[in-house]
Amino acid sequence: MTTAVLDADRRRLHRSWRLLRVGVLNERAYRIRLVIAPVMLAVQLYLYDRLWTAVFSHTKVTAGFTLRQTLTYSLMALLLARVRWNARTVNVRDSISVSVREGTIAYWFLRPISPGRFYMWRQSGDIAYGAAWATCGYAVLRAGGVIDGPHGAARGSVFAVSLVLGQIVLYYLGQIVDIAMFWMLSNNGVVRMYYFVQDLLSGVFVPLWFMPAFLLVAATWLPFSSGLNVPLSLYVGRIPMKHAAFELALQAFWVIVLALFTKWMWSRAARRVTVQGG
Amino acid sequence: MSDADFAIVTRDLTKTFSVARRHVGRFAAIRSLFDPIRVHRTVVDKLTMSVARGELVALLGPNGAGKSTSIKMLTGILTPSSGEVFVDGRVPHRDRVGNARNIGAVFGQKTQLWWDLPAKQSLAILRDIFDVPKSVYDRQLADFDAILELSEFWDTPVRNLSLGQRVRCEMAGAMLHDPSIVFLDEPTIGMDVVVKEQTREFLRAQVQERGRTIVLTTHDMTEVARLCERVLLINHGRLMFDGTLEQLKSKYGSGALVNVTFSEPVGALEVPGARVVSHDAMQAVLAPMGVTTPEDIVRALISRFPVVNLAVDETNIEDLMRDVYLTTADELAHKRDSPDSDRDSA
Ligand SMILES: Nc1ncnc2c1ncn2[C@@H]1O[C@H](COP(=O)(O)OP(=O)(O)O)[C@@H](O)[C@H]1O
Ligand SMILES: [Mg+2]
């Protein structure tokens, strides 16, 4: 009995592990991307580096940031944006958006794993793949002395926790956009618009601290700041360690709220499919 | 026998969709947005039927008859509005996971394969999703390959496969986890005859050797004639006929049409066992009725009239339905309580 259960568990784990590969296999189908992605990233990083150096040429500190802090924050934000690069493309054939449009979403409901679980593993593969790129980028920038490391082991570990929480927040936000496709029928314009706002308010383009006060407040009261701004500000020391506990708790709060919300959305989506035929 | 002894049992299975109808007149668009008129449409209407294990049954009906909706309820994707449904003793929409392990499905042109990956990799992913043990997977692939010849193209990305190749992979994907019941919703639409014959052979083998139960919807009467012993015919969501194809033909005619051209004008046209569909001076279209075959009509025409040209149209489901309608017009008038299946809600 126990061995049977263990066996089933192991098989399930094995299955989940292999579902992760779909993202990587998809990427391999378009090998040209393997060249384009790092080139694009390198160009972006270089331009940001030049831009901030120019901005700081007449001043030492802006919005409480030194040049070094700004560079570290911005370049890491660019790298972290890569983590969900593939996970957020709505045009992938097995995305919710395309599956709803083409009616193939029906198959998601004909499998021994729930649509939500399938989505999670499928996304995890894409995210793991993006994270591998980001990690390589980080290693190169650190080795080249372009960006700083975290100041001290304590900061390093708080950052690590905050980074994971932030990625979970972003995962749920992306999931909400994806599930919304059950109703919006792949309205790509709205999705692009949304991601622009999300990137802006989580700190991908410019550190949040440089923003006008109302945007900064908006980002802090919405889950966006929890995504990238909090972990990166902890990393560069813009948020003091004595505030770290509060920031982590706020991130955890968003994780819970968004998790419950996506669960509810999935049940509405399933209802929509099973009662009205999608 | 109890419900679990059958592969499929339905009783008074009904599906009613609620659809928004547009307002007309002033501010119609805005009123439709904020206060849509909800109308109920009964798409499957008190369907009662059963399918034994190991049967290969055709579900026939014209477009919009409710075939796909019925199949979606049998697969558990759609929740019925009322009535009962049991698939292998389970209620599909209540036990979706248990049901999923036990059934396979192909929905016409909709692919469940991964577009950018080689077909075989898609099958491997489905294997992971359905948790198929290696030994079963290998046996299944060998089994499918023997008839469907998948290995010739399964290393090609799905997006580059021809329709026939893709549907063959689709069938393999649907049966990979060795389901006892398989639903195929217009799987062969648009395929060439060679591939059609190949898939027929495959389906026959799956029923005879693997003991699967198959429910197939199609418009292709040749396919039905070659594959299915039993036919369920639905129209406007209602079961109109349940029996063998022979019984269907003897009751309603074969659905075939005989087109005839005469060398000189012909007056009254009367052929025993045939209904005249249209007739002008030089040309006529006739439909065989009851046990009469198109060949009987051809023979009768040649012996009685100055015929210069004759053609028998392929049997198709739309024509057959037309005959079913004409033959059962009275029956229908009595049976149907309302003239329109659209009923406005209170
Ligand atoms: N989700 C839905 N909402 C409203 N009407 C629907 C829905 N799905 C199908 N219908 C209608 O139900 C009827 C039967 O559809 P379907 O079962 O797909 O027929 P078939 O497969 O026999 O061609 C059609 O008139 C179709 O327009
Ligand atoms: Mg259909």
User: Would you tell me which CATH topology of the largest domain in chain B applies?
Assistant: Rossmann fold
Mean pLDDT over all positions of chain A: 87
Quickly name the level 1 CATH class of the largest domain in chain B: Alpha Beta
Q: Catalogue the unreliable spans of chain B.
A: 337-346
The proportion of residues in beta strands of chain A is: under 5%
Poorly predicted sequence stretches spanning 5 or more consecutive residues of chain A: none
Indicate the CATH architecture of the largest domain in chain B.
3-Layer(aba) Sandwich
The radius of gyration over CA of chain B amounts to 23 Å
Oligomer: heterodimer
How much of the sequence of chain B is in beta strands? Answer: 25-35%
Strand order of the largest sheet of chain B: 5-6-7-3-8-9
Written account of the structure:
The complex is a heterodimer of chains A (278) and B (346). In chain A, α4 runs antiparallel to α7 (115-143) and α8 runs parallel beside α13 (244-276). In chain A, 75% of the residues lie in helices and 1% in strands. In chain A, a hairpin with a 2-residue loop joins β1 (61-62) and β2 (65-66). Chain A has 13 helices and two strands, in the order αααββαααααααααα. In chain A, strands 1-2 form a two-stranded antiparallel sheet. Chain B has 346 residues and is α/β, with parallel strands linked by helices. Chain B folds into two domains: 3-250, P-loop containing nucleotide triphosphate hydrolases (Rossmann fold, 3-Layer(aba) Sandwich), CATH 3.40.50.300; 254-313, Alpha-Beta Plaits (2-Layer Sandwich), CATH 3.30.70. Chain B has twelve helices and 14 strands. In chain B, a hairpin with a 2-residue loop joins β8 (230-235) and β9 (238-244). The longest helix of chain B is centred in the middle third of the chain and has 16 residues, at 193-208. At the A-B interface, α1, α2 and α13 of A face α2, α3, β5 and α4 of B. The structure holds adenosine-5'-diphosphate and magnesium ion. Magnesium ion (MG) binds next to α2 of chain B.
